[in-house]
Structure to design on (404 residues):
């Protein structure tokens, strides 16, 4: 069975969004997708869950997020707009990039489809976009409350019935929709593969919206008719069909995740003699030595264990920054990392949970070589904090000692 993890992530305004990360039952995902639900719905809509499950069964990881004021997310729906929805998607995508991998596939249902089309331009890692029952123009959502629109304009807000539930729509929501009147141009400049799902019988978003969307897009683009399906894909067979077709289509455009290095023997060995501190270290056929300074009885023939710890952090940092720069085409000429170790009072460490006594502090200085602007340098320093050794050192470590 696929695995599901509850997620809490911050949006651009500091509110916490509720999300769910669905993962394959074994191994790492071949790629990640971000799912945007329909207007006033949530990540727990049956269609969202079924499609996400179908994608995970085919090896993808899927992050589904509740937008501000909906589902289990913080905030008030009446304070939101189409622009805040797009912003929530961008925040979720960046969270996914920081914690797992940047999403390569965006999937949007109904107004969520318009949102992923608008968000794609801010997410360079995205390679493919799929919409399900989506309008070409986000302003299409006005038809849900056309009878109350005059009241919204005159009074600043009105309570409308959406799917049998009351929601407050404010004038700012309408004003924001007016700022997205060039969606067809944005779709034409999408620059990603596009798949449009739509039912000819969709009574909520008419099939003509799919035609407008498809005509505005450039190749590679595809259209799949969901004949007989309703807008919310309430028939499980329709949701499974979407997942099957979407997964098959997406494999043409998604880059598989880089496999973890396959070590024949991942164990590290340490051998010391009858006297002295000189220690022979082995890993994957490579050998080095560790020692201690002469001042404490060593022979100064190798780095100390703490030197090696700093080397591990420095090497991992440099490799992580280089990998990111190569993927993003950043003109990085080189990276230099200096790591120092010290013992400091816990009271002097604002981020430490330890109270009293001393804690270890690793101070890392990163040198970035190349003609880089301030924003790029800041981004590369953020990436430095994501190196696997850094995460291991800051995470919970369980060390088990056995006699061999």
């Amino acid at each position: 069975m696929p695995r599901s993890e509850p997620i809490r992530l911050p949006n651009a305004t500091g509110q916490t969004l509720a999300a769910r990360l669905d993962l394959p039952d074994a191994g790492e995902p071949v790629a990640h997708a971000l799912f945007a639900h329909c207007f006033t719905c949530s990540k727990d809509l049956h269609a969202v869950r079924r499609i996400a499950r179908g994608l995970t069964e085919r090896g993808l990881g899927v992050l589904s997020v509740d937008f501000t004021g909906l589902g289990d997310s913080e905030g008030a729906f009446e304070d939101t707009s189409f622009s805040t929805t797009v912003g929530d998607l961008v925040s979720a995508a960046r969270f996914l990039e920081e914690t797992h991998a940047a999403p390569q596939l965006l999937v949007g249902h109904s107004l969520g489809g318009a949102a992923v089309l608008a968000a794609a331009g801010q997410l360079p890692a995205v390679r493919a976009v799929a919409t399900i029952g989506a309008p070409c123009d986000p302003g299409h959502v006005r038809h849900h409350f056309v009878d109350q629109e005059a009241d919204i304009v005159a009074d600043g807000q009105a309570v409308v019935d959406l799917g049998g539930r009351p929601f407050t729509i404010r004038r700012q929501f309408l004003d924001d929709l007016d700022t997205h009147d060039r969606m067809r141009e944005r779709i034409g400049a999408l620059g990603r593969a596009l798949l449009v799902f739509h039912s000819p019988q969709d009574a909520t978003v008419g099939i003509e919206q799919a035609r407008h969307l498809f005509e505005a897009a450039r190749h590679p683009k595809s259209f799949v008719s969901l004949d007989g399906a309703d807008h919310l894909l309430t028939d499980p067979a329709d949701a499974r069909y979407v997942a099957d077709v979407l997964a098959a289509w997406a494999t043409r455009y998604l880059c598989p995740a880089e496999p973890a290095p396959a070590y024949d023997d991942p164990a590290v060995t340490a051998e010391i003699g009858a006297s002295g501190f000189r220690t022979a270290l082995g890993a994957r056929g490579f050998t080095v030595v560790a020692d201690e300074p002469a001042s404490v009885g060593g022979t100064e023939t190798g780095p100390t264990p703490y030197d090696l710890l700093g080397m591990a952090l420095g090497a991992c940092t440099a490799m992580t920054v280089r990998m990111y720069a190569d993927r993003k085409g950043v003109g990085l000429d080189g990276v230099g990392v200096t790591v120092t170790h010290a013992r400091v009072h816990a009271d002097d460490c604002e981020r430490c949970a330890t109270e009293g006594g001393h804690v270890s502090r690793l101070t890392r200085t990163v040198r970035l070589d190349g003609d880089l602007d301030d924003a790029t340098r800041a981004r590369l320093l953020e990436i430095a904090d994501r190196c696997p050794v850094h995460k291991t050192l800051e995470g919970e470590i369980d060390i088990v000692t056995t006699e061999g």
Q: What stands out?
A: The mean pLDDT is 89. The CA atoms of residues 51 and 239 lie 6 Å apart.
